[in-house]
Specification:
Shape: globular
Strand content: over 45%
Largest sheet: 7 strands, mixed
Number of strands: 11
Distance between the termini: 37 Å
Radius of gyration: 13 Å
Amino acid sequence: VQLQASGGGLVQVGDSLTLSCVASGRTFSSYTVAWFHQAPGKEREWVAVITSAGGINYADSVKGRFTISRDNAKNTVYLQMNSLNFDDTAVYYCAADRYPSGPTWPLKRYNYWGQGTLVTVSS
């Protein structure tokens, strides 16, 4: 599976932005897909996940503001980001795996990663 993340850009505080993660391969619907972000000088952090069955989980920091969704017909997972703030400034990566391993969603590991798309939130 190859992943291509896009949709990042420069936005202002309070704005919205939608990221896309397009995957190659015919079996994308069977993959769990997650979004991570990495802020400047910080470690990469898990943001949200959507399973092949449509199960969804979010990091507390984005709950209520971000929405993850998928369109299997388009091999695409989206991350709708609303009410963006300075802390959301980061490179956003999508990741996929059929069976991500790990004890909890923030700690699960994925074999396939996109290249990242930069989101910058300014005043």
